[in-house]
Amino acid sequence: MYKSDAWKDFEILDTGDGEKLERWGDVLLRRPDPQAIWPKDPSFSWDRVDAHYVRSSKGGGSWTFYRELPESWQISYRDLNFIVHPTGFKHTGLFPEQAANWDYMTERIRSAGRPVNVLNLFGYTGGATVACAAAGASVCHVDAAKSMVSWAKDNAARSNLSSAPIRYIVDDCEKFVSREIRRGRKYDAIVMDPPSYGRGPGGEVWRLEEKIADLLLLCRQVLSDRPLFFILNAYTTGLQPIVLSDLLKWALSGLDGTIEAQEVGLPTRRGLILPCGAAGRYTGE
Fold first, then answer.
1. What are the sequence ranges of the domains in the chain?
2. Which tens digit of pLDDT belongs to each residue from 249-268?
3. Whole-angstrom Cα distance, residue 200 to residue 151?
4. For a surface tag, which of 1, 21, 90, 188 has the fewest beta carbons within 10 Å of its beta carbon?
């Protein structure tokens, strides 16, 4: 398992009964997590939180705030800084479990001994973008949501990366990669963090199981002759790591290097590991 266990500003205090209790800096949040099917630890006071996201029986949900929180606040991971705040979809703008991939990418880029050009697809608020840029890479950040791309710019600024070589693109990822193929542009590394379901800026429907294979084949065409890494993340419940491994083996057939895939998890204070999807990694030679 790829475990993100080096956080100082974030931790999961407890999990259970379909929820998780988290500390984001000095803010305590209580959020749903359907995979936490074990009982809660009764020694934790789950009611002493700052905000609680409750699902609605009609779909969606809403936050209940028990004290006035700042509009947003900053948390740090190593030398990276991120802006977080509760959003309308229960998220905070950051997936802390991805720190395990940030560490991997940072090590690969810093030890490459050459310029590295990274393509970050479905870049969201830029966790991977900030990590790669801080390690010295040039990054192309692509997301269909303009608001998420703006958030990514703000995160880069908080990490003193406003002048770093980062291109920010608001576009459908598949259409963008197709245009990059026609332009003849190449990338030494690709990070792909697709949702299970989503819509592009033009209303394009994305379903991971239907679209991912075609997108991987397109991405293969923009890889440089000496690819450094390729990361494929998946949050779809029930999608096993072996599926990601097989997808990468199929799409990157003929390339020298190694491929592995594992679950991604976050440790909790009580010693349990909260599952947070899976990641497949191709590591070039």
1. 2-77, 94-284
2. 999 999 999 999 999 999 99
3. 17
4. 1
CATH number 3.30.70.920 is the correct assignment for the domain at 2-77: no
Q: Is the pTM of this model over 0.90?
A: yes
Dihedral sign, CA of 36, 128, 204, 149? positive
Spatial contact of 273 and 266, defined as CB atoms under 8 Å apart:
yes
Mean of per-residue pLDDT scores for the chain: 94
Number of other residues whose CB lies within 10 A of the CB of residue 205? 10
Superfamily of domain 94-284: Vaccinia Virus protein VP39 (3.40.50.150)
Residue 147: band (very low, low, confident or very high) from pLDDT cuts 50, 70, 90? very high
Distance CA 137, CA 139 (A): 6
CA distances, 47 to each of 13, 30, 140, 262 (Å) = 13, 9, 42, 34
Instruction: State the Cα–Cα distance between residues 61 and 37, nearest whole angstrom.
Output: 20
